[in-house]
Amino acid sequence: MMDAISRAGERGCSGGRSAFLRLLCSLCMAAALFQLGACTTLAPPRPYTTEAEARAARGEPARRWANDDGTTTLEYPTQPNGDTCLMVQVDQGGIVLRQWDALAPENLARVERGLDKEQVSRLLGSHRSEQRFRNSGEEVWDWNIRNDGPGIATLFNVHFIDGKVVRTSQTYVFPREGAVHGAWGGYYGYPWGWGVGWGYPRPFHPYPFGHPFFW
């Protein structure tokens, strides 16, 4: 009888180990599928060979930029919620010469003092929102970019005075919580200190109810 109990116990332990191993394998497979899905989502768009192919895949571009060399750049922005802007340069015959993400870090670094608004738009694509600061005389455009900070989003800001770039900055967006602030949202350091707004990702409103709270 003791042998029977021992064998039953061994079968129970073996069954428990098998169930645990099956569960562990299932979790590993789920994690692998999640990683694969994430890679698929974040993968850059495949290279296009013709303008017709790009338009078939992406639709009509938001803007078409005529270049001095006779080529055309098609702009596919994803603002205000997205963090990429696909640019596709084609020749006069509709053949794709190159394509790139206008909001990639190396392209953001090309914004420099003295550029005008059209040059910045051609470089980065359509911006997310804009606002004016009377005390500094600045007009600030922002773009939602890949988040590398502690908040829920990262904004790249370009500051203009008299239509020319004077500097750039970066803002980390934090959620506002609680019964009072939860519905309104706000930005920390956008570009100086707290501001009350309509909440991310909709554009920041500098004068809610007509009152300059953060001036």
Automatic annotation (TrEMBL):
Top-level taxon: Bacteria
Keywords carried by this UniProt record: Lipoprotein
Protein name: Putative lipoprotein
Biological source species: Thauera aromatica K172
